[in-house]
Amino acid sequence: MLTLSNIQKSFDNQVALDIPHLNITGQQTTILIGPSGCGKSTLLKMINGLIKPDQGEVLFKQGKINTQNINLLRRQMGYVIQEGGLFPHLSARDNIMLMPRHIKLAPDTAEQRLQSLAELTQLDAGQLKRFPSQLSGGQRQRVALMRALILDPDLLLLDEPLGALDPMIRFEMQSQLKSIFQKLGKTVLMVTHDLNEAGFFGDHLVLLRSGKIVQQGTARQLIENPNEPFVEQFINAQRAPSIIAR
Ligand SMILES: Nc1ncnc2c1ncn2[C@@H]1O[C@H](COP(=O)(O)OP(=O)(O)OP(=O)(O)O)[C@@H](O)[C@H]1O
Ligand SMILES: [Mg+2]
Q1: Alpha-carbon 77 to chain mean position
Q2: Is 11 in the pocket of ligand 1 (CB under 6 A)?
Q3: Residues, beta carbon < 5 Å, ion ligand 2
């Protein structure tokens, strides 16, 4: 679904990403984890074409992403940016419906999708009429998720999409999203700080440090066979003994 090869990206001579090779398998969930500043958001932005690599290429469905094709390709990618990224002057509903209108999706189809996503995210019609500033952080995050899912994209790029949710809604959304991803065969690349969440969602975890991949594998592999002390330290710092149980 997605292949990164020979990726190099620096900001002000500081290496932000240095990834010789990374394959994101279709129809499974890959989790990006790692300390703050290790390059997780930069990686998602690069796949979405917001940041260009200094070197290397990103292949999406075998084709190289470039400035000519990125607008069309973006319609096949749902993206929730770390801060939500809703337009402040549009209601929640209009934020969600912006792209369906832009690509002239049949209004009935768009409305049906909106209704089922509103059910998933537990947002009601009154809340969807409000502007982002009139919603709570968790509600905004759920609107951003609805917006990312409304075109029914093959690939979802999710940058800490559940971070602002209270534990009960978060737990419920984790279960529902996981079953949606599986049922619809979505390819998901998700950033989370929560190793428990990573283990719950992720078929495959990619641990980054200072822009480089330190280790990839299942949560169990990272826990049981850390390939360097940093992996163990990262996992221990999270103190998440229930990962394997879930
Ligand atoms: N536009 C930019 N200009 C300069 N430096 C940048 C820019 N964007 C990101 N960086 C730097 O690149 C590095 C990686 O940033 P990135 O946002 O990808 O980290 P992250 O892993 O998402 O961190 P967090 O967990 O805190 O969200 C950081 O050191 C950051 O300061
Ligand atoms: Mg980030």
Answers
A1: 10
A2: yes
A3: 40-41, 82
